[in-house]
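Hey, quick one: can you model this chain's 3D structure?
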Amino acid sequence: MASKLLRAVVLGPPGSGKGTMCEKIARSFGLQHLSSGQFLRESLGGGECPRGWWGDDRGSPAPGIFHRDEIATGWDGGIPPPLPRVHRGLFSFRFPRTLGQAEALDRICELDLVISLNIPFETLKDRLSARWVHPASGRVYNMDFNPPHVQGIDDLTGEPLVQREDDKPEAVAARLRKYKDAAKPVIELYKSRGILHSFSGTETNKIWPYVYTLLSSKIPPILSDEEN
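Sure thing. Here's the predicted structure for all 228 residues.
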């Protein structure tokens, strides 16, 4: 087993299950989970940020507000915030999204492995289009496999759910195309370094055992696959 800290990244298009996968990794391997959203909240004094922008309550850019990707690579085009002290290792998702971000990340740490989630386009489109949220808390529901108890109503507050503009069917295809174009050079970069590991499927729970096996070869797990 490797004795050094493990540094890894989980890549995948919107709706691919990166968040769920990262929760499983954190529980099973005791790794610290980082995301650009976390850096945003800490840098700007806490609070929730809408997807993509720290802006108004519709997720639109407000005057003088930076795009999340800009903050993720530094206020002035520099590097991400300093990485925290960790005992076993760390991993991130939603970053890097572009080649420029990957190059910025190179300046602060050397990655040990990159996990890429490959989910069919139609699966992603259906999954994202079925997603509704409670704006105040950020709770996410999926009308296909995680619906609220009462249609259109948040389980905890009884307040109405909304569908974000970028989750509407006509916007989903554009989001997926944009991701594909931006991610291609990032994926090629990590593939050329021999640290890219791709996993294909339609369900996170079916992909997870293969990810668990890969990570177990790099760092001892603290939970068995069945315990997660």
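One thing worth noting: The two ends are 21 Å apart (CA to CA).
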